[in-house]
Amino acid sequence: MTRAEPGGKRVRILYFAWVREQAGVAAEEVMPPHEMTDVAGLVAWLRARGGDAAIALADLERLRVAVNQEHARPDHPVAREDEIAFFPPVTGG
Amino acid sequence: MAVRVQREDFDVAAELAQLGNSGAGALCVFIGQVRDFNEGRTIAALTLEHYPGMAERELARLEAEARRRWSLSGVLVVHRFGRLAVGERIVLVAVSSARRDYAFTACRFLIDQLKTSAPFWKAEETDTGRRWLAARAEDSVTARRWVAGEGERNAACEPTER
Fold first, then answer.
1. Which of B51, B111, B135 minimises the CB distance to A91?
2. Dist. CA B58–CA B116, nearest whole Å
3. By CA distance, what is A18's nearest residue in B?
4. Does an H or E element contain B126, and which?
5. For residue B51, what is the nearest residue in chain A, using CA coordinates?
6. Are A17 and B124 in contact, with CB atoms under 8 Å apart?
7. What is the 3-class SS of B3-68, one letter each residue?
8. Which of B41 and B116 is assigned the larger pLDDT?
9. What proportion of chain A, given as a percentage, has pLDDT over 90?
10. Do residues A18 and A88 touch, judged by C-beta distance below 8 A?
């Protein structure tokens, strides 16, 4: 069983398209507290942190989320070292 | 299994020749390209941003699902990213099968589904500036229609018009 990191669980956040432009950053590593266990919890923590990323995440209805490169809903679990991406509804093809 | 995400253009004839090597009787192809006009604006160029890693993964997932649902021989999806001029090819979806029903249906399934799940985002450049395209509600509706019949192998399902 891995020992929990003191201070929180490190995760990597990616932003794409206009979400990236609003957040002002393409990627960042953050350390939300261990109490954060799912996507909804991570979003709440990122919003509370403030800054441009919080503004980018203000309206979750306009966003989609992926955890470890798979589409995810707000109740999807988030574990340490996970990669979480926030982006607009896709427009490829 | 063949899905590719790349910046460079692809050679349609060469790709189809390779797909045709399997000996299957029917080959169905879809090509998406940059249109010249959208919502009253003339388009100068289109930039496609993508999520490296997840893009390949989603396309591979869709290929696996198409193979599970229909008897297919070859499947090829190539999706480009980067800045593309009007008329340039964006995406190739090609399917071969012993039967044309399956080839047509699976090809349609793949393009309908990738438009709502593959992580690419288009930004249009026009004479009034650059703007991110919004996802269309119709694409989500079209994609959802494929849910019906997914338990049945070789279901002759196409999205039915309502």
1. B135
2. 11
3. B132
4. strand B120-126
5. A16
6. no
7. EEEECCCCCHHHHHHHHHCCCCCEEEEEEEECCCEECCEEEEEEEEEECCCHHHHHHHHHHHHHHH
8. B116
9. 87
10. yes
